[in-house]
Design brief:
eight-stranded mixed beta sheet; single chain; Alkaline Protease, subunit P, domain 1; mainly beta; seven-stranded mixed beta sheet; 174 residues
């Protein structure tokens, strides 16, 4: 009977450990900040040279935001998603991933105003890259893959149904 009580108690303790809060990292030109949430999530924000970075992770997600030279990077990951955003030279990058999706956004504003946004859900993979002065937005769901560029043709593969892949960018749409 004592063994059964111990097993039940440990089961409740394990459930409580996964029901905890996620992790939030924020750096406004203050270098690297890293946290791990009680729910298994992790985040990293790194900002130098006037950059601003914010990474939020929940539900075993992983988020990383890196900025430099007045760039602005935001990454949000939930439900075991992985989101990475990097921005430089006044560029703005936003990555959002959920449901095991993978989102990667990078923006370098050296050549002019640059905005990159990647959103991935339900095992989708989205990548947005801006480097020539323009915009790139990629969205993928299911097992779809979307790749957006501000200065090159896009790539969209919806994968098996019900996957989707959509790109809107100064380099083209699909």
């Amino acid at each position: 009977m004592v063994g059964l009580v111990a097993v039940v108690f440990l089961g409740f303790a394990a459930a409580s450990a996964h029901a905890g809060k996620g992790a939030t990292c924020k750096s406004n030109n203050k270098g690297e900040v890293m946290h791990t949430g009680a729910d298994g999530s992790d985040c990293e924000a790194d900002a130098t040279g006037g950059g601003k970075s914010k990474a939020i992770a929940k539900g075993a997600g992983s988020a990383e935001a890196i900025s430099e030279t007045n760039g602005k990077a935001n990454a949000t990951a939930t439900g075991e998603g992985t989101a990475d955003a990097s921005a430089a030279s006044h560029g703005k990058a936003t990555a959002k991933a959920s449901g095991e999706g993978t989102a990667d956004a990078s923006a370098d504003g050296s050549a002019g105003k640059c905005t990159a946004t990647a959103t991935a859900t339900s095992s989708g993979t989205a990548m947005a890259q801006c480097e020539a002065g323009g915009f790139a937005r990629a969205t993928a769901t299911g097992e779809g893959t979307a790749e957006a560029f501000d200065d090159a043709p896009p790539f969209c593969s919806p994968g098996p149904p019900p996957g989707t892949a959509t790109v809107k960018s100064s380099g083209g749409d699909c």
